[in-house]
Amino acid sequence: MTGTELALQQYGLKPVARSYYIRGTTNIEDSLERIQKAGAEAVVMIGTYNPCAKFIKRAAARGYDPIFYTVSFVSAGELARRLKGENESIILMSQVVPPPDHSSDFGGASNYETLLRHYYPLEKPTFVGLEGFINAQVLVKGLRAAGSNLTRERFIRGLESVRSLQLLPGVSISFGPWDHQGLEQVYFTWLQGGSFRLLEDWKQVSDVWNREKGALDSQGGRP
User: Fold this and answer.
1) Taking the model in full, what pTM does it have?
2) According to the model, what pLDDT value does residue 169 have?
3) Under DSSP, is residue 18 helix (H, G, I), strand (E, B) or coil?
4) What is the spatial distance between Cα 20 and Cα 15, in angstroms, rounded to a whole number?
5) pLDDT at residue 46 greater than cutoff 50
6) Residues 6+ apart with CB under 8 A from 163
7) Which of 65, 78, 110, 119 is least surrounded, with the fewest CB atoms within 10 Å of its CB?
8) According to DSSP H, which parts of the chain are helical?
9) Of 64, 130, 125, which is closest to residue 95 (Cα–Cα)?
């Protein structure tokens, strides 16, 4: 929430409403009531898939259809599965890895998919799986750089020595004594056809939003 508010401040904006749910529950009713009453046209959701899915479903049942934005923590596959069959609103999600099944240069033919098909032929590529695959590559690189006399300090120095490690086509990672960030890129996706796909042009979202808003306005205004 703090990160969201800081980002909004750069544009002279602030949230029209804030609310919370209790961790480990799906008690989102009060939050939905407060946010809908405030007339929010976009809702930033930081949570796990169950409460987020419930919020989106309940909002739709009430005729409330803002833009929903979530982060990778929610788990794209599980959220999409829980919203299957629902009338898809504009549901966006930021990811720290590229879509594993995307056909562009950093997708389709990655070692992750090749190995997954070989060892787990019944499993489908997922964002979480790809992130784990990348984490393992970085871990192994750090262990090898640390040498045989492994200690915590040597492992950290080993990781800090990693430069331009190629993880996927077009995706590399570097560390340093003052840089533990690793990947710098963020990939935006949106829910289409039951799965989260790469958002390559934000105009697509604005076009859908303006079309839906125009249709609602013609019927007497947005809920």
Assistant:
1) 0.82
2) 75
3) coil
4) 13
5) yes
6) 174, 175
7) 119
8) 2-9, 29-37, 49-61, 76-82, 111-119, 127-146, 152-160, 202-218
9) 130
